[in-house]
Each structure stands twice: as C-alpha cells, then as structure tokens.
Inverse folding.
C-alpha cells in the first residue's frame, strides 16, 4: 500500500541498503549451495580478488586505460552527435537527408562495426575510438534532434526582433532549452559508451578492463571476471551520480 | 515627403494558403509618432505586426524600417523562464546598469520584482516586464501588440501614457495594435482602422467612430 506522502528519504535509503544486502546474501547462499567456487565463486572470493588486483595496481591501470577511452569516445560522440542532431532538428530538409542514415546506423550490430573498423584501420587506438563513436553517435543524434524540434519558435522570434548576436542567442535562449536533452543524451550516452568500450578492448586492445576480461576468460577465472566487471560498473555508477546527475540538476534548477 | 527615418509599410497582399489575410495595407509613421492599428481580433493585426518586425517575409509588398534597434511587445510576454526579471532585461541590452534596470521597472510599476523569476509573477506583471524589456533597447521602432490588454483599466491608462512618453522621448516610432478604441484614442496620434480610414485622433470622436464601425463597441476587453 502506498498512502500519504510515502516513505521518508531515510526510510527509502534503508530499504535500498537492505535490498542490496539481500542480493549479496542470495549470491553468497547460491555459491555455498553450488559447491563449485571455481565456476561460481561467492562474494568473499570476488572481493578478495578485487582487493589483491587493486592493491597490485593492475586493476587501477586497466580502469584508467578504459576510462580514458570512454572519456575520449564520449566527448567526440556528444560533440558530433549534438551538431548533427541540431541540424536535423532545425532543418526539415537536412532531416530528410540524415534520417535514413540514422535508421541504418541505429540498427547496425555494434559487434559488426567494431570488427569491420579493426579490419579496415588495424588494431589501433583511433580505430577503437572510432568504432565506439559510430555506435554511439546515432543515439545522441536522436535525443538532440527531439530537443531541437521542441525549441520554442516564439523565442526565436524574440531573438530576431531584438537582433540578439548569435553567441548570446545560443547561450541564453537555445542552450537552456536544450539542457534537459543534452543531459539525457549524456547520461544514456555514458552507460552505452562504456559497455561498447569493453567490447572494443576485448577484441583488439592490449590494455583496459575489456582486455583483462579477455585474459581472465581464457583462464576461466570467474572470480576475476566478476571482480573486474563489478568494480568498473561501480566506478561508472559513481561518475554518473556524482557528475552527470549534478549537472542535470543544475540545468533544471530554474524549474 | 517622408524622410529616411520614417517607417514605411506597404503590404499589397498577405495570404496563408488560400486565405487572404491582408490586402493593400499601406501606412507611414514618423519618429515620435504613435500610430494605432485598430481592428477586431482575428483581422490580421498580429500578422501585420509580424511583417513590420521582419518576422514574416512571405508577403507581397515592402517594409522600410527606421534605422536602429527594434523593440517588440508580443501578445504573450515571452520572458525567458530561466532568467530573473533583471536578467530578462539585460538579455536584450547587456550594458544596462542596476540604476537603468530600476528605472525601467519603476516605469512599469515593478521595482520590487527585479530578482523574481517569471514563474513567480503574475501574467499581468510579466506583460509589464515585457514592455520594460522593449524600452530597454531605446528602440527606434517600438511595436506593441495589444500590450495593455488584460491589465487593470486604470493601471493600463497610466502605464500606457508613461510608456508612450518614454518612447517619444527616445524619438521612437510607435506602432500599436489594439481592438480597444478608448485606449487607442487615449494614446495614439493617429488611428488606422484595418479595412477603414486613416484618422487623426483629434479630428474625430469615439462616438462617431463607434457609429461608423460597430465592431469597436462590441469588443470584449
């Protein structure tokens, strides 16, 4: 039953923590019942692996390499995707040209893109970033195009009447209207980007979390695979909550 | 002979698809002059103003605007909701100092609203901020679309006189669209009735205008 104002913030935090604890307990129980720590290790074994790998520095190095690629691909995708999305949203003619490409790009299997780019460009850093961008840009374009279509023409008229210079028009009129869409594109963008980066690393990079996962796969080190996956997911979750959500809240503060 | 500073509007024809909205609307207005465009709602006043402002270029004819900045007050206030009142004024005129902003807001009776956001003020107040914003650029051409509608009538009269006086002092050409004859008579030098004559207000009276143009009396405020 949900009545009145609902549970308080503290109440909800406690519920979340309990739920998380229950998941760990369930995992621990399943591992204990499974009796096969090699193929299905419990939280203890995974935690121990993570601790050793972090202490030895190799995990931090891998996470650093991956974060670098994520940041690079994220920034490039946002810049290019935003530019194309604005164009498509503002000009119906440009949209007619861009839209068919977009439909195809959105439906390309990511794995195919990665493999093809590596074949054509070699196993290079540039190829890795390019592959992630090709997979990522279309989703940015779709979100930003929605935002550009929703721009209020009445405010365009206002800017034109008062002959606002382009810089002020962008900063004061267009950007504030686009902010929620930029934030949404960034948020979904980040989570998509890091998952694709892992694939790119798994297939053709000599370092990074994806590369480590590949090594661990070859030795069937399940504790290591879970440890790398979980720690990196936690790092990305932290980045998202700390940086992106804060930006999003700032963008919407006036509401 | 009109000078280079004169607003010259000559709209031979404006249509939206098959619908003819304006035909043969021609007028001029000199700096310091207040011309009211009077017509019932839905008769093309707003379209005419959009053409004068250069927002609608799909028409047959020509518009020559006086050189210099334009100020416009639309029917809706069009304040930017993410900027406070003072920042909304600075949007169109970044050089405004605190004293300038206080002066403009005092003119429209909103000294206390400087730091309020548009969502925190009433529609009537927002419309007055929009008027202050239009004056903030010291316009050579000031275009007002029903600016005092929905304001309290007593307030509207005082406010409209103050605004017109300020615009005149800056040498602005003022073009005002209205459906309110009394208001037009109170502040305009000339009244142009859409589809009717172009009148000097001092040569005519409200009563005779009402007899001639019945729509002017039946219009709701």
């Amino acid at each position: 039953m949900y009545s009145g104002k609902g549970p308080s913030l503290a109440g909800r935090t406690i519920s979340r923590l309990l739920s998380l604890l229950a998941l760990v307990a369930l995992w621990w129980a399943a591992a204990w019942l499974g009796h096969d720590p090699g193929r299905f290790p419990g939280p203890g074994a995974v935690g121990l692996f993570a601790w050793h790998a972090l202490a030895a520095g190799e995990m931090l190095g891998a996470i650093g390499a991956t974060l670098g690629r994520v940041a690079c691909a994220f920034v490039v995708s946002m810049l290019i995707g935003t530019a194309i999305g604005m164009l498509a949203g503002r000009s119906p003619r440009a949209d007619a040209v861009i839209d068919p490409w977009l439909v195809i790009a959105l439906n390309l299997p990511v794995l195919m893109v990665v493999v093809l780019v590596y074949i054509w460009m070699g196993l290079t850093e540039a190829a890795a970033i390019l592959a992630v961008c090709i997979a990522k840009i279309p989703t940015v374009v779709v979100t930003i195009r929605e935002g550009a279509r929703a721009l209020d023409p009445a405010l365009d008229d206002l800017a034109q009447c008062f002959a606002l210079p382009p810089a002020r028009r962008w900063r004061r009129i267009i950007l504030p209207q686009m902010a929620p869409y930029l934030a949404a594109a960034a948020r979904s963008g980040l989570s998509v980007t890091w998952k694709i980066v892992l694939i790119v690393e798994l297939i053709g990079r000599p370092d990074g979390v994806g590369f480590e996962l590949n090594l661990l796969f070859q030795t069937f080190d399940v504790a290591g695979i879970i440890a790398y996956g979980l720690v990196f997911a936690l790092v990305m979750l932290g980045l998202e909550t700390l940086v992106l959500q804060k930006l999003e809240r700032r963008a919407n503060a006036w509401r | 002979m009109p000078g280079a500073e004169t607003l010259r509007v000559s709209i031979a024809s404006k249509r939206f698809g098959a619908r003819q909205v304006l035909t043969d609307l021609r007028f001029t207005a000199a700096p310091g002059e207040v011309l009211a465009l009077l017509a019932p709602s839905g008769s093309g006043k707003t379209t005419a103003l959009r053409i004068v402002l250069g927002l609608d270029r799909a028409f047959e004819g020509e518009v020559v605007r006086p050189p210099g900045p334009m100020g416009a007050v639309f029917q809706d206030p069009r304040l930017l909701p993410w900027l406070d009142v003072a920042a909304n004024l600075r949007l169109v005129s970044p050089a405004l100092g605190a004293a300038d902003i206080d002066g403009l807001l005092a003119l429209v009776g909103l000294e206390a609203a400087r730091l309020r956001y548009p969502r925190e003020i009433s529609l009537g107040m927002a419309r007055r901020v929009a008027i202050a914003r239009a004056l903030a650029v010291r316009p050579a051409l000031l275009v007002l679309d029903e600016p005092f509608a929905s304001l309290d009538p007593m307030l509207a009269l005082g406010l409209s006189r103050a605004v017109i006086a300020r615009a005149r002092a800056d040498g602005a050409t003022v073009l005002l669209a209205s459906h309110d004859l009394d208001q037009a008579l109170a502040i305009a030098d000339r009244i142009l009735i859409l589809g009717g004559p172009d009148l000097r207000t001092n040569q005519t009276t409200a009563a005779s205008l009402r007899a001639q143009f019945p729509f002017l009396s039946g219009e709701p405020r």
